[in-house]
Amino acid sequence: MNGLMSDKPAHLELVKDSGLTIRWSDGTTSFYPIGYLRRMSPSAEQRALREEMDRNPLTVLPSGMAGGGPLTAVDAEMVGHYALKIRFSDGHETGIFSWQYLREIAPDRDANAPPSP
To answer: Is residue 115 part of a domain?
Structure first.
C-alpha cells in the first residue's frame, strides 16, 4: 500500500472546545487537543516560537497562549485534498495542517483519546 494513502483521513471530527479526532484510512485514530494543535501550528510564527522556547524555557508566550481564557477552535476548513486550516479563538489562523504533518505530530492516542461513547 502506498504510504501516502495511509496519510489520508477517513473521518474528521472537530469539537471546538475539546479537540480534533481523525480516523485515518488505515484504521488508526488520533486525537489532538485544541491547545496542542495551537502550540504545534505549522505556521512560521509558531515554528519560530517553538524554537525560541527550546533555546530559552523562560520565553514569554503571546497573550492568547498564556491562559487569557479558554482556547477554542472557531472553525476549520479543508485546504484542497491535503490539509486542514484551523482558526483559533486567540486569532491565530495562519497554520495549514497537512495530513502528513498531523500524522507526524499525533499525540499518543492511548493517553489523549477521548472516552468512547
So the answer is: no
CATH of the domain at 77: 3.30.2020.30
At residue 19, the 3 state secondary structure works out as: strand
CA torsion 23-106-99-86 (nearest 10°) is 90
pTM given for the model: 0.75
Number of folded domains that form the chain: 1
| Span 95-111, pLDDT tens digits | 899 999 999 999 964 44
Nearest-5° Cα angle at 58, 54 to 63 = 100
Strands 9-15 and 19-24: antiparallel
Query: CB within 8 A of 35, min separation 6: which ones?
Result: 71
The residue segments making up the domain with residue 105 are 5-63+70-109
How many CA atoms lie within 13 Å of 21's alpha carbon, on the beta-carbon side? Answer: 16
Tens of pLDDT, residues 40-91: 998 888 888 888 888 888 877 665 554 557 899 999 999 999 999 999 998 8
